[in-house]
Write a structure and sequence with these properties.
The complex is a heterodimer. By secondary structure, chain A is an alpha/beta fold. Chain A has helices at residues 3-35, 73-86, 111-117, 131-135, 170-181, and strands spanning 61-66, 92-99, 122-128, 144-147, 153-157, 186-188. Chain B has helices spanning 3-48, 62-84, 89-109, 118-127, 133-153, 156-159, 168-227, and strands at 51-54, 57-60. The chains are: A alpha/beta, B mainly alpha.
Chain lengths: 198, 232
């Protein structure tokens, strides 16, 4: 075998090793990244008092905390739209869009914010430095809370199955069920970027 | 050697030359496609999810790293094989497996978008250009294995629920098999047509050779007649 052929054979063997290793490592890295939830909320059992925001008196109130630059939250907003369509029309939704102190003008204006602004029966609230998120005990973008018409916490959790994955999942199903029945409680892991630290 | 067997041998030789040349070209096409997909994956990751955020702090998103490193890892072997070992069965099968892994990577980078699953079906059609149905079998096995393993260890990533029915991967694989049936048929038909064309060419070559021999014999006979002294 000539030297050139030997070198080619070695390169091919090395690349075969890289190929196999990459497949195994990439699969594992993706699985870990996508299935690791964010910090779960320490939600108040009763609707907290918030400046200038009143709970819906005619039905349940749904709250979602959003980091406007979190790409995974596109899936959360997509799921929120599905929930709003399937929930009673008396449900009202608040989406709190995180905006840090001393950020540039328009920092929070992203496609995630625009998608949230287009939701039906929804009020968009700019959450200055995550103050509202702290009142709700939330830490992670996509964190969702459902309070019934009496102000009792029914649901705290995420509404996606994994980071950035839209589609059928236990969180979405639980919120729809609880919004329709107004009885029982549920939780589900939340997947998204951090808004506040614990 | 009989006339018939020499024509058959020549037909087989022509068939092999044609299919080899075709497969070398397809290998090179896939090498280019894999590189383009790699770059598109990185561009897509930067466009869709460039950063992961923690409050106002940001770091490069995991998707960008996955697109750069896993994308390169998936593409390196098939591209090198297409350059250094074009036309071999090993190259075709590695390309088929890598193309399906690229589909899985792109599906992951787009957050499991159903539209990205079209890449799987498009890739199967491209792989049929090889006119080798076994390549489709390799690709289908990779897709089915990916769905089966993820369905067992990570069901939310494929089905969105934590406890899908055990046979759900079969439902997904069935759509791939549905396409495969027609592609395998097209591969067999394509090979048959190629063999028929090669047999015709071999016959034409043989007839042309015979004609040339006859013409040469006639020329010789005429030359002999012309050179013979007149005896009458």
């Amino acid at each position: 075998m000539s030297a050139r052929r030997r070198i080619i054979a070695l390169v091919l063997i090395a690349s075969a090793a890289i190929w196999v290793t990459t497949i195994a490592l990439a699969l594992d890295a993706m699985r870990k990244f996508e299935s690791t939830p964010g910090i779960a909320a320490d939600a108040p059992q009763r609707w907290p008092s918030l400046q200038a925001i009143d709970r819906n008196a005619n039905g349940s109130t749904l709250v979602m905390l959003i980091h406007p630059h979190c790409s995974c939250s596109r899936a959360s907003i997509h799921e929120l739209a599905e929930i709003i369509e399937a929930a009673p029309r008396t449900l009202h939704t608040f989406v709190f869009v995180y905006r840090p102190k001393e950020s540039a003008a328009g920092w929070e204006q992203t496609d995630v914010t625009r998608a949230a602004a287009g939701l039906r029966r929804t009020t968009l609230v700019i959450d200055q430095d995550g103050a509202a998120a702290r009142r709700f005990g939330g830490f992670t973008s996509g964190q969702t809370f459902l309070y019934d018409r009496e102000g009792r916490l029914r649901y705290a959790g995420g509404v996606t199955s994994l980071r950035g994955h839209a589609g059928l999942n236990g969180g979405r199903a639980a919120v729809i069920r609880l919004a329709n029945t107004e009885s029982g409680k549920a939780t589900h892991p939340v997947f998204g970027c951090a808004i506040n630290s614990r | 050697m009989s006339m018939e067997s020499s024509v058959t041998e020549r037909a087989a030789e022509l068939s092999a030359q044609t299919i080899d040349a075709r497969r070398v070209k397809i290998d090179r096409m896939f090498a280019g496609l894999l590189v383009i997909q790699y770059l598109a994956g990185i561009a897509g990751a930067f466009a869709v999810s460039p950063y992961a955020w923690a409050g106002k702090e940001r770091v490069l998103h995991m998707h960008v790293w996955i697109a750069i490193l896993a994308g390169a890892g998936i593409a390196i072997l098939p591209v090198l094989l297409a350059i250094f070992r074009p036309g071999t069965a090993l190259t075709r099968h590695v390309i088929a497996a890598s193309q399906m892994l690229s589909s899985a990577l792109l599906i992951h980078l787009t957050g499991g978008r159903i539209e990205t699953h079209f890449h799987v079906f498009g890739s199967l059609a491209f792989l049929a250009f090889y006119l080798d149905w076994k390549v489709l079998l390799t690709a289908t096995t990779v897709v089915a294995a990916d769905h089966f393993l993820r369905g067992v260890y990570w069901p939310e990533s494929v089905y969105g629920v934590t406890n899908p029915e055990w046979w759900r991967f079969l439902e997904h694989a069935a759509w791939v098999v549905f396409e495969d049936i027609f592609l395998v048929w097209a591969c067999i038909l394509g090979l048959r047509e190629m063999n028929t064309a090669s047999a015709r060419q071999a016959e034409v070559e043989h007839l042309s050779e015979q004609e040339q021999l006859k013409s040469a014999a006639l020329e010789m006979a005429l030359a002999e007649i012309r050179s013979a002294p007149a005896t009458a």
